[in-house]
Amino acid sequence: MNMLDWTPWMPSYDPRLGDGATVVEDTHGRLIETADCGVRCPGCGICCAGYRDVVVADYEGVEEFEGNLKLGRGGLIRLENGAWYRSATCGEACPGYEQCCQPFDLRQRPETVADARRVLLEDEASPRWQMQEALLILAHEGTAEAVDGLEAFMPRAHTRLAGFAECALDEGRYFATVPRNAEEERTMLKREVLQAWEERAIEAQGQIWDFLEPKLARAQYELEIAQRLLAKAPDEAPRQTWQTQVDVLEMLVGVSEGDLARQQDEVALCETMIAEIEADLASPVQ
């Protein structure tokens, strides 16, 4: 191929739209995302649901003095710490109308599990930054309530938040299994012992149902048949043969009954231990 014939390839679509985000275009040709507070939003106030950065540059990204920015763009708000923010241009034409994010220093952040659940599960207009902070709170809380909140949020998570929410759920489930103090560590130890005894009881009961009871039933049936044949024996020789079989089968039935009784004692022992451990766990004094 002659390199002189090469021409740059241009895609037939706008690569900025490759992820299917819903956007509007401002007068400067920039795509402004709608109410999901997307990463491409420059926070200019056109989409009030997008976060607004501290103003340090003009539209082309060139840093300017605050006075020049205020004069050239207007609508700036100066906070007590001296930072300049762009004001919201709220109106019904705005795709984020009445869902305006506060400037960074003025944001009302979730602080408790109840706050996080409200942000994620109750408020329909929670911005993405607020939902991310709520997810972090639940992820690190380490309680069953927090995990329940994360699981309830997963089906309604926005596409942009799905990966973040999955990581939060994994962390939440992990921290829910980690004891945070000596009391929780003691309770976890008791639950581990309880689980071990429950598994032991299940195994013992399984031996009874799957092996010992069928084995005893077979031996009893064989003994029943041998006793019938003994009763039908016409003379002494076959009578002695079947008597020997009856004696052997009676012994095998006795062995099977003993094995079954011992396994039933094992189940009873496990059930007694389980009941006592459960009572200990239910006691207010752990």
Structure, explained:
By secondary structure, this protein is mainly α. It has three domains: 21-106, no CATH class; 113-175, no CATH class; 182-282, Helix Hairpins, CATH 1.10.287. It has seven helices and four strands, in the order E-E-H-E-E-H-H-H-H-H-H. It has helices at 66-73, 113-122, 128-141, 144-153, 159-175, 182-232, 236-282, and strands at residues 23-25, 31-33, 76-78, 84-86. The strands form two sheets. A two-stranded antiparallel sheet has the order 1-2. Helix 3 runs parallel beside helix 5. The protein is elongated. The N and C termini lie far apart (80 Å).
Task: Summarize the topology.
Elements: E1 23-25, E2 31-33, H1 66-73, E3 76-78, E4 84-86, H2 113-122, H3 128-141, H4 144-153, H5 159-175, H6 182-232, H7 236-282
Antiparallel strand pairs: 1-2, 3-4
What does the average pLDDT come to?
77
Question: Strand arrangement, largest sheet?
Answer: 1-2
User: Main sheet?
Assistant: 2 strands, antiparallel
Radius of gyration: 37 Å
Q: How many E strands?
A: 4
Name of the CATH architecture of the largest domain:
Orthogonal Bundle
The level 1 CATH classification of the largest domain is Mainly Alpha
Structural class: mainly alpha
Number of domains: 3
Helix content: 40-55%
CATH topology description of the largest domain: Helix Hairpins
The residue ranges in which pLDDT falls below 50 over 5 or more consecutive positions are 35-55
Relative strand content? under 5%
So how many helices?
7
What is the string of SSEs from the N terminus onward? Answer: EEHEEHHHHHH
Distance between the termini: 80 Å
Shape: elongated
